[in-house]
Structure formats: C-alpha cells, structure tokens
Amino acid sequence: MALSTIPFSGLGADASNQGVNFRNLIINGDMSIAQRGTSSTGITSNGYYTVDRFQTIISSLGTWTNSQSTDVPTGQGFSNSLKMECTTADASPSAGDNLLLYHYVEAQNCQHLKFGTSNAESLTLSFWVKSNKTGTLTQNIRQIDGGKFINNSYTINSANTWEKKTLNFVGNTADVIDNDNGAGFQIEWWLDSGSNFRGGTPSSSWHTQNNLDRNADGTISLADTVGNTWYITGVQLEVGTSASDFEFLPYDVNLQRCERYTRRLGDGLWGKASSTTNMIIQCPFFSPMRATPSISAITSAIKTSDVTAADYTSSTGITSANINAYGARLGCINFSGLTSANMYILYDNSSYIALIDAEL
Prior knowledge:
mainly beta; Jelly Rolls; Immunoglobulin-like; seven-stranded antiparallel sheet; six-stranded antiparallel sheet; about 5% helix; about 40% strand
C-alpha cells in the first residue's frame, strides 16, 4: 500500500533515512513521552496529567487516576500505554456530566488533507484499546475551523484483552482548515457521560456539532464502578481508507515533537547572580514552541552550586518570567551567600524545576 509522506523539517535527526514518513498526525501515539510524570491521582477536573499531548476532560463524573502504564499489547513493539482507572464511582451522572480523552492536532499539520476542497482526503484512525468492560464507545473528530464534527464508534468485544480498532472518516469538502498554529482537529474518545451527550443521531458525514450526538453510540459507563479501567496505545491518524502499521519514531524525535507543546526545565540551567540573594536564568529553547507558553508546576525550592560545588538554596524558587516561544528569562530570589556577577548552575531534587506549557 502506498504511504503518504509528510514533509518535515527542523529536527536534528535525518528522519527520512530511518524510514520515517511522518504519516501519523498524532504526536506521541505510542505513549512513550510523559514529561509531567507517570501517575496522577485524585483527578476530578480537566488537565494534561501524564502522557504528553493527551488531555483528560472530566466534569463531575467520578474520580480518576491517569497513568503511563507498561501494560501493552504483546508483540506489537509498544512499551507504554495510557491508563484511566476509576477510584471514586458515579453510577448516576447528572445530565451535563462527561468523561473523555482529547488529542489536538495543530492546523499547520493538516494542510495536506486538502479539507475545504473537492480533493479532501479520507482519514483512518487506528489504536489499541483494553478495558475490563465490554460494549460500545463513541469516537469523534471535531474540525475546529468551521465548527464541524464527524462520528464513529468501536466495540470492546472481550474484557481485559488488547484489541486493535480501525475507524474510517470521510474528508470534509466544505470547510477549510486554517494554516496556523491553532487547533485543526480535536480527537475525542468518550468514556462516559450524562444525558446531555447521549440520545442524538450520530453521522458519518461532517455536520454542525450537536452535544446530543457526541456520545450517542456509547453503551459503556466507565465511571459506574470503582476499579473500572480503560487503556489506549498505538494511536495513529493517517490519510487513506486503511490502517498501516504504526509508525514508530526514534525517542529523541518523539520528545522533540512533544516539546513544541510542553517542555521541562530541569537540571543544568545556568544563571548569573545579580546580587547575593538573586539570580537571573537565561533559557533559550533549542527549537521554538507552538506559541508563547505559560510557566507552571514550579519547584518551590531551587538549589544552585558554583564551580567549587558549594550549594545554595532558594526557599522561593522562580518568581518572575519573561518568556516567548523561543526562550525564557527567569528570576529567582531568596538565596543567600551568592557572589554578584558569578555564574551558577541550577538543579533540584525532583524531576524538573518548572514546566513550560504551550498546549492547544
């Protein structure tokens, strides 16, 4: 089968020499990158918690643990999956409650699909899934520009068994995807919902979004019992009407693609003391981020050392940030004993000093 090749530049590795076509529109579909950590508990609100590029969406529908798991389909080359586990159940959701997983595809990466023209390409979404429950779950793609979406569904046939699912979606000939750094597609995996999202009429054609259609095919309620689980890995969205083998990328390439949206500031940053108590840290990004990011998940105490390996600790951490898509200038205060104008290297005792976020 002929495979489409997406031009891709800006990476240090020569990916074309490694048999990589970049046909997969999903970034981190093998769930190998988890810059925020490998497990997050007590989840009751929307957020990116573990595996990069996959967002948990939840509104008053139980409490969940989201984790990067090593439970994977045997013999398929995967090392990780994303796991959702119910830790507090809600068997009677209110009408507006919902639980699902999102993945956003940047609009600039969708131009070869030719949406909004008579040559709009069909798409195939494939993935591996596993759950302790059997039944049907709803799968949608929403096109942000134009406000249209398209429905599909898949069935989990055997409990606690990895199964590969392949879903087809026709191209949208009516609505153009803008060539910008905003969201082109919102991929939706529905896990549970109240009545506001059920009872509609799903359509295999692109149509104006209607909440009643969004989980119309769902027969599984994953929030109804503590211990319910749902796993996913090997997510691939590609041009055509059939699924090709999953496109594995080198780990460094996959990480760099994720860092366009989120990156960690960790050990090894250099800063200059502006006084005996304050430091300025210059942090250029080796590749630009999608947009001007925010800075969050800041370590409250930052350590630094000089060339003599003497240690100094700030009890406050990062207190100011001038930041854009190309780099950051960070301020740290409340050290003691620094020598003004000397250079220091930062480190801490956790996995990162701060998280830089430009997610869609």
